[in-house]
Amino acid sequence: MAEHTVVKVGSRKSQLAMIQTNTVIDVLKKTFSDIKFEIVAMSTVGDKILDAALSKIGEKSLFTRELEVALEEKEVDFVVHSLKDLPTTLPDGLVVGCVFKRDSPFDAVVMHPKHEGKKLEDLEEGSIIGTSSLRRAAQLGRKFPQFKFENIRGNLNTRFRKLDEDEKYDAIILAEAGLDRMGWRHRISQVLDTDVCMYAVSQGAMGVECRYDDQKTLDLLATIHDSDTALCCIAERAYLKELGGGCSVPVSVETKLRDNKIEIRGGVFSLDGTEAVIDSHSATLKTDIDDEPPLKKQKETSNGPKLFSSIVHTKGISQEKCRIAENVGKELADRLLQTEAAGILATARQQTEVAILEEKKRKEAEKNETEMIQIPKC
Ligand code: DPM
């Protein structure tokens, strides 16, 4: 590669986003010491709207759209995201160029300092748990019907401030991965078992988005692609896509790779958690067709690399395995949709839509009264 090559990297401005972006850049720098990586930081809709639950904002690609426009305009070459914030369908021409090795996919409890040392089950009836994730509220509401779940927004720093200073919340629920990356492991009082709370699709994994036709960037990213993470996230994203989900419905998942098998468990919940359907599915990741198809054949079928759940197929991982992973996720969703899960999802979606409309009305009403505070959010 020529000297002084510059690669522009888009990132949200929040501390977590910057940490994630720098993590990816640092690993790339080890292999590509002659490349200069320049970060272009920007805010997204999700960063700007801080007074509404994510699910009530009613827009897709909340944390990604502005960055995707920058990619399309070639102002940046790649963007590092939390893969769970990337919609299952990406804009034409954009792909997940690689997924970085997954950190903890689990959710964790952070207590108000007055409850230090306690676990969720030790909190009194009526305690207030802060989360704006429908998935967390539904699953925890199911296990702990004695608690109240209230919306909390803002970036991680803001949430910690709200927890510690507002005296409103007894605890908040956050992804262990995010807490770890921020260096806040010491504030974790409990990591939630998947029997209590299954995680969000792709939680804990970082995904790097780039242009499909940008082979130079794809080659760069292929060097940090993690096969096991990719297989799990392909399955999880296929599952969510087939369910038609996004952050407007309480959908959760758990995926394991072991003994050459992929096992996926998924749940669909009513908003209050009283109804739930959980099912699982698995498939053998065959090893006998690990070889890439001969180059000639590949050229005949497509011009560029194949995509599985919008994730680019890279060398070092068999296409067959990716296809099996994608199918296992899709099939789990199909199975769930044949049960009462279909109705539960439809109702949850409808209720969220009503909440979106109410939120819009509320916004209209207070439009001129409140100034929007602009604090970066992750
Ligand atoms: C999405 C959700 C949340 C984020 C919904 C969910 C949490 C929102 C909230 C899709 N994106 O998980 O059910 O709790 O109010 C987000 C976080 C991370 C990525 C923060 C978090 C960091 C961890 C990771 C926000 N996106 O979940 O605590 O890399 O997965």
UniProtKB/TrEMBL annotation:
Its EC number is 2.5.1.61. GO terms for molecular function: hydroxymethylbilane synthase activity. Belongs to the HMBS family. It comes from Potamilus streckersoni. Residues 7-218 form the Porphobilinogen deaminase N-terminal domain. Residues 230-283 form the Porphobilinogen deaminase C-terminal domain. InterPro entries: HemC, Porphobilin_deaminase_N, Porphobilinogen_deaminase_C, Porphobilinogen_deaminase_C_sf. Keywords: Porphyrin biosynthesis, Transferase. This is hydroxymethylbilane synthase. GO terms for cellular component: cytoplasm. PANTHER family: PORPHOBILINOGEN DEAMINASE (PTHR11557:SF0).
